[in-house]
C-alpha cells in the first residue's frame, strides 16, 4: 500500500516530550518527520531517530510555528500531512479515525481537516482536567487546521491565527 500520510512534528528542546507522542504516532505506520529547531540544546534529534523518524534541522529565528508550516510541508512526499506539536498527545479515537482514512475505510472528503484541540493539565490530585490557555478565551479549546494537502499550504498571517492558505482560499 502506497503511503498517503506523513506525520510532521516540529520541536524545540522536545527530547522529554517526544517519546509520548512518537510512541503513539508510530502505530500508524506512516512516515514521521521531526523538524528539530537548530536552537535546540537537548537530544531531540537523537530521541526522534530512536523512534524511527526522519529528522530535519530547521531555522526558525522568530520561534513561530505558523511561519514554518509552509517550508516544513515541502519536505512531505505524501498527498497528505498531519501536523502535531511535540507537547500534544492525540486521542486513540483520533488515531483510529486517521488509520481508517489512510486505509480508505473512510473517504477523503475535504482538502483540509480542522480539529478542536483541548488543553489539559494535571490538577492538584494528579488528574487531567481541561485548562484555560491564556491566548484563547474559549475555555481551553481552539480550532487547529492540522490535516491538509502539503502542496497547497502557504503561510498567511501571524501567531495564533488559522491563516493557512489552501490553494486560492484562506481559512
Number of strands: 11
How much of the sequence lies in strands comes to 25-35%
> Helical region count?
4
Residue stretches low in confidence (pLDDT < 50, at least 5 long) are: 132-140, 159-171
Largest sheet: 6 strands, mixed
The best one-word shape is globular
Distance between the termini: 32 Å
What does this structure look like?
The chain is of the alpha/beta class. The chain is built from four helices and eleven strands. It has helices at 18-26, 44-50, 65-73, 92-102; strands at residues 5-11, 31-37, 54-58, 80-83, 112-118, 120-122, 128-130, 141-148, 153-155, 164-166, 169-170. The strands form three sheets. A six-stranded mixed beta sheet has the order 3-2-1-4-8-5, with helices on both faces. Helix 2 links the parallel strand 2 (31-37) and strand 3. Mean pLDDT is 75; it is low at 132-140 and 159-171.
Amino acid at each position: 500500500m502506497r503511503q498517503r500520510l506523513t506525520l510532521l512534528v516540529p520541536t524545540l528542546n522536545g527530547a522529554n516530550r517526544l517519546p509520548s507522542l512518537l510512541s503513539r504516532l508510530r502505530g500508524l505506520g506512516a512516515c514521521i518527520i521531526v523538524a528539530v529547531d537548530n536552537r535546540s540544546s537537548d537530544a531531540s534529534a537523537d530521541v526522534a531517530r530512536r523512534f524511527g523518524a526522519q529528522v530535519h534541522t530547521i531555522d526558525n529565528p522568530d520561534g513561530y510555528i505558523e511561519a514554518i508550516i509552509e517550508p516544513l510541508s515541502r519536505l512531505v512526499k505524501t498527498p497528505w500531512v498531519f501536523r502535531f506539536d511535540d507537547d500534544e498527545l492525540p486521542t486513540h479515537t483520533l488515531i483510529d479515525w486517521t488509520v481508517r482514512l489512510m486505509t480508505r475505510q473512510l473517504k477523503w472528503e475535504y482538502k483540509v481537516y480542522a480539529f478542536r484541540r483541548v488543553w489539559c493539565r494535571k490538577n492538584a490530585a494528579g488528574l487531567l482536567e481541561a485548562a484555560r490557555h491564556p491566548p484563547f478565551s474559549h475555555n481551553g479549546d481552539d480550532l487547529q487546521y492540522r490535516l491538509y494537502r502539503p502542496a497547497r499550504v502557504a503561510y498567511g498571517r501571524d501567531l495564533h491565527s488559522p491563516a493557512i492558505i489552501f490553494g486560492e482560499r484562506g481559512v
